[in-house]
Specification:
globular; mainly beta; Immunoglobulin-like; 155 residues
């Protein structure tokens, strides 16, 4: 009887334990924004985002106090013309890394609330399908400046 009670207690504890193995672990690195001329109302953001977890996860939205709107876009070529398409969500498979780079996937950072200058550090928060919020710090790079490598944030 004592063994049965112990078994039931252990099973109850296992059921109440958080599903840690299935949780996504998303990390952001090399997040940067190129400097834009004064008065520009749209900027682009680039980064590498990796899902180190055991389950796929989707980016559902992004936001920043420094911009009125932030959205994920993909550049596609149609009939020789580059066009941007907004993505409503972006799935990242377990173990997958997605690079946001000029000419491809990027963040559209629209209507800055104040001027953006080289050296600024701007936080953008990603909302994931599992309810997780992942903050990332973007470095504003001078026009023609080198991209800073190795700037990482993991959550």
């Amino acid at each position: 009887m004592k063994s049965l009670h112990r078994l039931i207690t252990m099973l109850a504890l296992l059921c109440l334990a958080p599903p840690a193995l299935a949780a996504a672990q998303v990390g952001v690195s090399n997040a940067w924004i190129p400097q834009a001329p004064p008065g520009v109302t749209m900027l682009a953001g680039y980064l590498t985002i990796k899902n180190d977890g055991d389950a796929p996860v989707s980016i559902l939205a992004a936001q920043s106090d420094r911009f009125r709107t932030v959205s994920v876009h993909q550049t596609v070529i149609e009939n020789g013309v580059a066009k941007m398409r907004e993505l409503n969500s972006l799935e990242i498979a377990a173990g997958q890394e997605v690079k946001f780079a000029p000419g491809g996937m990027h963040l559209m950072l629209m209507q800055p609330r104040k001027d953006i200058s080289p050296g600024d550090r701007i936080e953008v928060t990603f909302l994931l399908s599992d309810g997780t919020r992942v903050p990332a710090i973007f470095d504003v790079q001078a026009a023609g400046g080198a991209v800073t490598e190795g700037h990482e944030h993991h959550h």
